[in-house]
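Input structure tokens:
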């Protein structure tokens, strides 16, 4: 058939294998087993009962736009105006809308990797070309972005896509690194799309990870994507947003109109309630921190395993010495050890030799899963 095609997700392939195998612990998907906040669930039900089910403002409900602007202004170093907030039907939709606004066939887009595969595929679906900048994998299991290599790749590029805290590695850019990245993008006239969906899931005592919103001006060629999926444990709700440059929201709203028209208003009402429920973020961060500690304990002392607990997100990206086929290993972990993790190759060539473990699960489930994983890795 004459259609555009993209490579299937290797994460989904592992998931399908796990679904067909009894008694498997799932650590392969990027979501928690925790319920969405009661406040959000109740608000959505109340909105439906009240008949708030018609088309909504394509920009997003005014009260949600105001709530997001107030929220962002509170956690970042400078205010974010409501006039720059655009709602979207998920974080991925927000990224896709940003790309539709700025990318044309043949444009070159720089993306650091390992990376969530949907982002590179979204670039390719728009006829643009992806150039991957591999993060440096350090001997202790941490990762680093080589700013000199980034500087060499940006001339002539249309956009740089940044994801910090990063899926899958947990790498989190420092304030100094973000300042250097923004300076390079300004210098070369490159758009910066910053995916900050894990911004509140950091484990160094900070309220939020360093953000481009801390330093960029409203006039910069910067768009910041975020979502309710991770921070507020609302993966299935499909509610995200973009922060766009000053004066550009009408143009972005027009793209939203032809992409998905608007976000369901009862879903947006749930978002308003979630933002107001200030305990949700701290409670979920503590939940993830407990899972992070269990993974660190399970992997400690294993020969041939490279891992340092990440600063941000809710994944352990574990390097295995000598591993050249992470998909085969992930498949064997399902069928022989009853634990499903994501193969590193799912996140690009730079991810090969690694496994991604989602640690945002309930403690008893995590404990059993990491015991199984430890036993399997100890066997070699």
């Amino acid at each position: 058939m004459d259609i555009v095609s993209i490579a299937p997700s290797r994460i989904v392939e592992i998931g399908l294998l796990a679904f067909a195998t009894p008694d498997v612990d799932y650590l392969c998907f990027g979501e928690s087993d925790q319920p969405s906040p009661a406040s959000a669930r109740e608000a959505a039900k109340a909105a439906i009962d009240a008949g708030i089910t018609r088309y909504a403002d394509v920009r997003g409900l005014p009260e949600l736009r105001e709530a997001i602007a107030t929220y962002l202004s509170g956690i970042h170093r400078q205010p974010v105006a409501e006039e720059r907030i655009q709602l979207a039907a998920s974080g991925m939709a927000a990224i896709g809308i940003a790309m539709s606004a700025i990318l044309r066939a043949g444009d070159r887009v720089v993306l650091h990797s390992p990376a969530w595969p949907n982002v590179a595929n979204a670039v390719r679906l728009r006829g643009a070309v992806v150039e991957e900048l591999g993060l440096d994998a350090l001997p202790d299991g941490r990762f680093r972005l080589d700013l000199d290599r980034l500087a060499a790749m940006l001339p002539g590029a249309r956009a740089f896509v940044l994801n910090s805290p990063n899926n899958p590695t947990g790498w989190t850019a420092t304030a100094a690194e973000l300042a250097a990245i923004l300076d390079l993008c300004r210098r070369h006239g490159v758009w910066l799309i910053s995916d900050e969906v894990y911004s509140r899931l950091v484990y160094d005592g900070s309220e939020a990870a360093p953000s481009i919103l801390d330093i960029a001006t409203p006039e910069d060629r910067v768009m910041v994507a975020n979502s309710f999926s991770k921070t507020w444990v609302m993966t299935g709700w499909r509610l995200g947003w973009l922060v766009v440059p000053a004066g550009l929201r009408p143009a972005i709203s027009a793209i939203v109109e032809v992409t998905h028209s608007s976000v369901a208003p009862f879903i947006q009402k749930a978002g308003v309630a979630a933002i107001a429920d200030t305990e949700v973020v701290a409670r979920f961060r503590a939940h993830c921190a407990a899972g992070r500690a269990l993974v660190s304990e399970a992997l400690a002392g294993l020969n041939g395993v490279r891992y340092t607990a990440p600063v941000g997100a809710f994944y352990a990206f574990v390097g295995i010495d000598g591993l050249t086929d992470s998909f085969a290993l992930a498949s064997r972990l399902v069928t022989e050890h009853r634990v499903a993790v994501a193969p590193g190759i799912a996140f690009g060539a730079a991810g090969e030799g690694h496994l991604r473990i989602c640690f945002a699960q309930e403690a008893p489930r995590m404990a059993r899963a990491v015991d199984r994983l430890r036993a399997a890795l100890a066997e070699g």
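The first helix runs from residue 10 to 19. The mean pLDDT is 97.
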